[in-house]
Design goal:
Blueprint (H helix, E strand, L loop, with lengths): L1 E5 L9 H6 L4 E4 L12 H12 L11 E5 L5 H5 L4 H17 L4 E5 L10 E5 L5 E5 L1 H11 L11 H12 L3 H12 L11 H9 L6 H22 L2 E5 L17 H10 L5 E6 H4 L7 H8 L3 E6 L2 E3 L8 E3 L9 H18 L7 E4 L8 H4 L7 H22 L4
Parallel strand pairs: 1-2, 1-12, 2-3, 3-4, 4-7, 7-8, 8-9, 9-12
Antiparallel strand pairs: 5-6, 6-11, 10-11
This protein binds D-mannose (DNO).
The site of D-mannose (DNO) has 13 residues, from strand 4.
Length: 404
């Protein structure tokens, strides 16, 4: 797999030069400053490519912008309201501009309103480092008591509702504000951020959209973009829901293997593929990541390797981000399945035999603790994750998949 590294642009406290020292061979980035729905112009794309290729002192970084994460899909498209057709036309134009610039892989997601969600961004680990955590009772406290969403209590098991009430009663204002901010303000890469009042209003726009309707809207979107993507030689890859279960009464439709199979077969094309994010999908005990890698194999265009520890059985549940080789996913078996897929592609002569992967997230350790990088995207924690994953890949490659 091609080792890549996410870079949020010039404001990122972890630079392209850092990524290079971590041993990355490619960069994953997005034009986060372009508003959702607007066209990514050739000039803006070229500027970002140059920022990736050249260090501020003018020297070559030797890295290229390989993968887009994400080209955002607007709420208008997801709900088929307002100017959604114009937004789709703009998305297609952005695709064409990216293809002309030589960028072939485009990751996006179809999560309604919220992108990835956590309640704690710096949860203290026994070793003194910090990691990100999703606490179901805290999330329920937000949903039931801070957002005060009608019917929210019915969406959680009774013991979580009771625990949420206890937590809320003991929460000071700072903690309330922090949970609300973590949930509503959007984590890095999320395209939209809301106040609590705006969030409540947004939820209203989904009042008549259930999972079936959202899936229908998604298929309409794919029908409108995939043929053009195929023609342009692009590989679109949908990121799964994170966490992979409904939140705030909103449907989530990219959480399981069956979800992926439904969407990939509805619009069957090599351009319609998956981002296999082990950390997101791994927050459900019924997702077997190795089996998913095998089943989705030829359609996997991008891989996020990360692990989570689920703190209880069942879905939904609390979980926290583990070290890359720990947690619920057998990372060695998953990597083995992905390397087998690459080997299979090579025998077919596929030009995309090498799948881009990135070490997803990382715990904050050592100097990360004072660096203030984007939550989930520290330099040393990710470097450690990448180094561990690289070790597994190298060992498997040499013993099972020697390349000619
Ligand atoms: C979190 C990320 C997500 C992801 C988007 C893809 O770290 O994996 O923000 O980039 O959901 O569209």
């Amino acid at each position: 797999m091609k080792e890549t590294w996410r870079w949020f642009g010039p404001a990122d406290k972890v630079s392209v030069a850092d990524a290079r020292q971590a041993g990355a061979r490619g960069i994953v980035s997005a034009l986060h400053h372009v508003p959702t729905g607007a066209i990514w112009s050739p000039d803006e794309i070229a500027r970002r490519q140059e920022q990736v290729r050249r260090a501020p002192d003018g020297s070559a970084s030797t890295l290229n912008w390989d993968v887009v994460e994400s080209l955002p899909v607007s709420e208008a498209i997801k709900t088929q309201t307002g100017n959604w057709r114009q937004d789709v036309a703009n998305w297609r134009e952005s695709m064409a501009n990216l293809a002309r610039a030589g960028i072939r892989v485009i990751c996006y997601n179809f999560m309604p309103v919220l992108d990835w969600t956590r309640t704690d961004l710096a949860w203290r680990l026994p070793n003194g480092g910090t990691t990100m955590r999703f606490d179901l009772a805290d999330f329920a406290a937000f949903d039931i008591h801070i957002l005060q969403r009608k019917g929210a209590a019915a969406d959680f098991p009774a013991e979580v509702v009771a625990e949420a009430a206890r937590r809320f009663a003991g929460m000071n204002e700072d903690r309330q504000t922090m949970i609300a901010r973590n949930v509503t303000a959007g984590l890095p890469g999320a395209v939209e951020s809301w106040t609590v009042a705006e969030l409540a209003e947004r939820l209203q726009s989904y009042a008549s959209i259930d999972a079936a309707r959202l899936r229908g809207n998604f298929i309409d979107f794919l029908d409108m973009v995939v043929p053009e993507a195929e023609h342009l030689g692009l590989r679109l890859c949908c990121h799964p829901d994170d966490p992979p279960f409904p939140l705030l009464g909103l449907p989530r439709i990219m959480s399981t293997l069956a979800d992926y199979q439904a969407l990939l077969s509805a619009v069957d094309s090599p351009a319609n593929g998956a981002t296999l994010c082990a950390g997101s999908l791994g927050a459900r005990g019924d997702n077997d990541l190795t089996a998913m890698a095998r089943a989705l194999g030829p359609k996997i265009h991008f891989v996020h390797l990360r692990n989570v520890t689920r703190e209880s059985d069942g879905t939904p549940c609390s979980f926290h981000e583990a070290e890359h080789l720990d947690g619920g996913t057998d990372m060695v078996a998953l990597i083995d399945a992905l390397l087998a897929e690459e080997a299979r592609r090579r025998t077919e002569g596929r030009a995309d035999a090498e799948i881009p992967m990135r070490p997803d997230h990382g715990q904050n350790i050592l100097d990360d603790l004072g660096r203030g990088a984007q939550p989930g995207y520290p330099s040393i924690g990710r470097l450690k994750g990448l180094a561990e994953l690289r070790g597994v890949m190298r060992a498997l490659q040499q013993t099972k998949y020697p390349q000619t």
